[in-house]
Write a structure and sequence with these properties.
Layout (H helix, E strand, L loop, with lengths): L18 E6 L5 E11 L10 E7 L23 E4 H5 L4 E5 L12 E4 L4 E3 L13 E3 L5 H12 L6 H8 L20 E7 L9 H14 L4 E8 L4 E7 L3 H13 L8 E4 L5 E4 L1
Parallel strand pairs: 6-8
Antiparallel strand pairs: 1-2, 1-5, 2-3, 3-4, 6-7, 9-11, 9-12, 10-11, 12-13
């Protein structure tokens, strides 16, 4: 049984600590998630503060019953994850309840690995002397990353496992990026990949991102989905979605030519015939 998240209803609600969300797999199984902390950066020292510390639970839930009276940390499905606000607003998570934390429902301190475990930080950006369980990743987790964590906990494959298997075999012709937190590029997406600096920080990400958002959304061909960092590949990405990825590409290219992108940047255009454009 392959793990793939189902689309629920989009939300304009601003996530708050204690919020409880539900998420559903396409096979009908439900899971619960809970907001622990808002206003987090997506990497140590980042000026961004739009990320959320989220718990995912293995607690049984049928999608209609009341939320269990307690959601203890002993029931965590995986290590805590960091997600952008857009993850909880985009239709994969559905808010169902808000309540205060009870004893045993929140870890005293959290541990996140940065740059594949080179350093470790707590949820407030304080460097730790070493790791302690459970160890999360100090990087933005997208839908494919949520699916991968659920699949790993259940011992099941993700829906794009066949692509990952082919990549591991070194098959040519696959333009999706290698396996990692982000997963393959979906067919309705166009993603810009940008090499990070040696310390993992983005190179003028805001200056790059803002004109691209204006180009895509201003032309009405798609919308900005977010950005994230893959610690294994040391790459940042900026993601756009649209019904016609070719139109998104055509809107982006003139804006990209005006930018001073780091060497090694490239664009992947999803679709039945995926396309890679080195920039």
């Amino acid at each position: 049984m392959a793990v793939k998240l189902a689309k629920l209803s989009r939300s304009k609600r601003t996530p708050k600590s204690g919020d409880i969300y539900r998420l559903r797999l396409e096979d009908g199984r439900w899971f619960l998630g809970r907001v622990v902390l808002t206003g987090m950066p997506d990497s140590p020292g980042s000026e961004s503060n739009d990320h959320i510390l989220l718990y995912l639970f293995r607690t049984e839930y049928d999608g209609t019953a009341s939320v269990p009276e307690r959601l203890p940390v002993a029931e965590l499905l995986c290590a805590p994850v960091l997600v952008g606000e857009e993850m909880l607003e985009g239709g994969l998570f559905e808010h169902i309840e808000s309540r205060d934390f009870k004893h045993g429902e929140r870890l005293d301190r959290h541990c996140f690995a940065y740059l594949s475990g080179a350093t470790y930080y707590d949820e407030y950006g304080q460097e730790l002397s070493g790791p302690f369980e459970p160890v999360g990743a100090f990087s933005s987790t997208l839908d494919a990353g949520i699916e991968a964590r659920i699949a790993s906990a259940l011992g099941e494959p993700v829906w794009y496992q066949h692509l990952l298997d082919r990549m591991e075999k070194g098959e040519s012709g696959l333009l999706q990026r290698p396996s990692g937190v982000m997963g393959p590029v979906p067919e309705d997406s166009v993603v810009l990949f940008i090499p990070a600096s040696d310390d993992g920080e983005p190179r003028g990400l805001d200056e790059i991102e803002d004109p691209l958002i204006e180009a895509v959304e201003g032309n009405g061909v798609g919308e900005w989905e977010g950005h994230g960092y893959d610690a294994d590949l040391k790459e940042w990405d900026i993601r756009f979605i649209g019904r016609r990825p070719g139109k998104v590409r055509d809107a982006l290219l003139p804006a990209l030519r005006k930018l001073n992108l780091p060497r090694g940047s490239y664009l992947i255009v999803g679709g039945k015939r995926a396309q890679r454009i080195d920039l």
